[in-house]
Amino acid sequence: MNLQFFMPTRIIMGEDCILKNADALYKLGKKALIVTGSKSAKINGSFSDVTNTLDVNGQEYAVFDKVMANPTIDCVYEGAAYAKKENADFIIAIGGGSPMDAAKAIALLACQDIPRENLFSGEYEAKVLPMAFIPTTAGTGSEVTQYSILTNDAARTKTTLAAPFLFPDVSFLDSKYMEALSKVTTINTAIDALSHSVESFLSVRSNTLTEVLALESIGIIVKQLENLKNFTLTREDRSQLLYASTLGGMVIAHTGTTAVHSMGYSLTYFKAIDHGRANGLLLTEFMKLVEKLRPDKIKTLLVKMGYTSLLELESIIFELLGDTESITVEELESYSDIAIKAKNIPNGIVAPTREELLNIYRAVFKV
Amino acid sequence: MNLQFFMPTRIIMGEDCILKNADALYKLGKKALIVTGSKSAKINGSFSDVTNTLDVNGQEYAVFDKVMANPTIDCVYEGAAYAKKENADFIIAIGGGSPMDAAKAIALLACQDIPRENLFSGEYEAKVLPMAFIPTTAGTGSEVTQYSILTNDAARTKTTLAAPFLFPDVSFLDSKYMEALSKVTTINTAIDALSHSVESFLSVRSNTLTEVLALESIGIIVKQLENLKNFTLTREDRSQLLYASTLGGMVIAHTGTTAVHSMGYSLTYFKAIDHGRANGLLLTEFMKLVEKLRPDKIKTLLVKMGYTSLLELESIIFELLGDTESITVEELESYSDIAIKAKNIPNGIVAPTREELLNIYRAVFKV
Fold first, then answer.
1. N or C end of chain A, less CB within 10 A?
2. Same domain, A148 and A250
């Protein structure tokens, strides 16, 4: 048996967990830079929970609330410059995947000067500001990964910055922050989490332990699909989805993702299709391809889901996601050319060819 | 849902994993103190794998091979003095629970002066030498916990030193080191691991995530009980047991143990009964007590084990452990007086009274 496991982030989950665990923030530093988006953290209560806790602790803070969806390289350099200007000695990220991913790069760039051309090289010191993360969506899993995924205009896709010291020190999981989410965002993020756990399970790097966690995550999310459809989610349902998405993060931290993510990045980059939705659109077609060569793995997933065939999963996912976008074959050809170069492709137990990628795209978008 | 999870130790499992991951030792320091027992590490190949790797890395080392079974406070102070004398800047523990538990205290005491009377107080700085652990039995789980359990003559029992910075930095799991173990040691350590996972599951601090891992561990160990009986263990079987015991460590790192451990410590302290065997002797009687108040939890365990009643588990455990020792009622009375004071008692979802502890002891030893 071969296995590696490393997940150094302290996870604290529960209602009002930030306020109840103020010491976990206290020990991180004297002045925080709060990295977030422009609005949602202030609406859902997470921002005030953080600032109230910092006030109680007597810790100062500055706010960088300029993180957009699919954050850019400019954005993280701007955030890092602001962290230095404000003498912040730790980072608090609040938000969905975008603020959390940006915050990791900011925590890194605030500590050392890395030229833009080296940002994705991994060639830098193991020096980073301490980080506390507060997810306000249940999808990305970024609160427990070493990945910072940034929009890379040079490569016309999203590129991953990864280093073992980019794991947050602590993550606070409180599902009350998700109650303000719209139905569409709730669905897209849940499907993103499902995709993480399924892709991890179908990765060449999956191991006994990540498979246990991935299957647990998958079982929980599939149980919530009907609630998602009806949008009748109790706080406990929201907690279940948050827990499952964090498990999804834990497993992709070990295994990475697969062709689904590689292909999805183009849909997001060129068509502004939400990241979770993009994964959801592509997921079952990729699973059908895997099923041809590794029916055993797909069978295990279906048993855990309580389905007898992939068509059942496909049916409920597309019911949740609604009509697909209009994309031309020429566009899909060019996306396939980009996706085939991604590292995630050979990371799947089945590594699609460029033609197979195109076929998946065409099947999804019916062209 | 409330949940906390923190397991910062990097786990590297696989054949020859030390040699293949020499960099994971390299980054820990310049000179190691190897903490081990007098013999087994040299016989089972782990000692030479470590020293060969250090040689390749150009790292120096000194050896402290005086750790006895159930290590004493004297032993860890002596080890720490030796670490200082040798200017060791990191610790490598090789062995079963005793060297690993001693190594954590040595790593702590080598960094700061702690008077003996404060050793179990927790009142010290978060300063400790980096640690790499190599278990050579599959039972204790110490390679992934923050616990150092020492023989405490003042309290006439074993006492736990615990701190979040006592997690090893890295643990190497290679089941080839277990092939030299006798049948008795293999059984006792496997039953110790089973007890950890069962006790964690029956702890007030268990949570959704620790329960998933505990059940996984339990399922694996129970599948190996027949192989243990016949002592027909392949290397893969040994790997399964090692993996399961590490999972057991991961879960007790979060939940602690229960009355089983409190009671077992007296059997070890006064009667020199092996730690794992002591837990095994007591485990099913404790589970019977829990079953009266929380049949749901025992049912979940039995389903995972594939048994219909606790008697089936009891039967195979006692078949493995053989005849029980002779202990008088008076002795058991005094053990009950000691055990009832332990912190582990109220840590179970059922906290036995002093009389119930005595009844468990009496049922086990048939007096």
1. C
2. no
Which CA distances in Å does B363 have to A76, B312, B316? 65, 17, 17
The pLDDT tens digits along chain B (367 residues) read 999 999 999 999 999 999 999 999 999 999 999 999 999 999 999 999 999 999 999 999 999 999 999 899 999 999 999 999 999 999 999 999 999 999 999 999 999 999 998 998 888 899 999 999 999 999 999 999 999 999 988 888 888 899 999 999 999 999 999 998 999 999 999 999 999 999 999 999 999 999 999 999 999 999 999 999 999 999 999 999 999 999 999 999 999 999 999 999 999 999 999 999 999 999 999 999 999 999 999 999 999 999 999 999 999 999 999 999 999 999 999 999 999 999 999 999 999 999 999 999 999 999 9
Q: How far is B209 from chain A (nearest CA, A)?
A: 9
Q: Is the dihedral of CA A220, A224, A228, A233 positive or negative?
A: negative
Helix axes B275-293, B183-201, angle to 10 degrees: 30
Which of B209, B215, B236, B246 is the best substitution to test chain A (most A C-beta atoms within 10 A)? B209
- Residue carrying structure tokens 């700061």: B112
Give the total number of structural domains in chain A: 2
- What is the reported pLDDT for A156? 81
- CA-CA-CA-CA dihedral for B319, B325, B326, B332, to nearest 10: -110
Q: Are residues A205 and A161 part of one domain?
A: no
User: Helix (H, G, I), strand (E, B), or coil: what is residue A56?
Assistant: helix
Answer whether B279's CB lies under 8 Å from B192's CB: yes
Minimal CA separation from B236 to chain A, in Å: 7
What number of C-beta contacts closer than 8 Å exist between A and B? 64
pLDDT, tens digit, 9 for 90 and up, residues A283-312 = 999 999 999 999 999 999 999 999 999 999
> Shortest Cα distance from A170 to chain B (angstroms)?
9
B98 part of a folded domain? yes
Of the partner residues A4, A239, A247, the one whose CB lies closest to the CB of residue B12: A4
Report the complex ipTM.
0.94
In a domain, A137, yes or no: yes
Instruction: Based on the fold, state whether residues A249 and A155 are members of the same structural domain.
Output: no
Q: Cα dihedral sign for B265, B270, B275, B281?
A: negative
Interface check for A23 against chain B (CB to CB < 8 A): the answer is no
The domain spanning residue A331 has which CATH number?
A: 1.20.1090.10
Same domain for A152 and A243?
A: no
Say if A141 falls within a structural domain.
yes
Domain that holds residue A76: 10-177
Residues A147 and A187 in one domain: no
> What's the pLDDT tens digit per position in A263-286?
999 999 999 999 999 999 999 999
Residue that finishes a domain, picked among B154, B177, B200: B177
Residues 6+ apart with CB under 8 A from A325: A267, A271, A273, A365
Cα–Cα distance measured from residue A303 to residue A298, given in angstroms and rounded to the nearest whole number = 9
- Short-list A90, A89, A112, A34, CA closest to A67: A34
Report the length, in residues, of chain B.
367
Q: Does B6 touch chain A (CB under 8 A)?
A: yes
Ranges A3-7, A329-333, B39-43: which has the least confidence? B39-43
**Does residue A153 surpass a pLDDT of 90?**
no
CA-based nearest residue to B339, from B306, B364, B308: B364
In a domain, B335, yes or no: yes
Q: Is A156 in the same domain as A31?
A: yes
Residue B220 and residue B256 in one domain: yes
Query: Are A299 and A290 a contacting pair, CB within 8 Å?
Result: no
Question: In the numeric block, which tokens belong to residue A327?
Answer: 């994309």
Structural domain ending residue among the three candidates B127, B145, B177:
B177
Same domain, B121 and B134: yes
Domain CATH number, residue B21: 3.40.50.1970
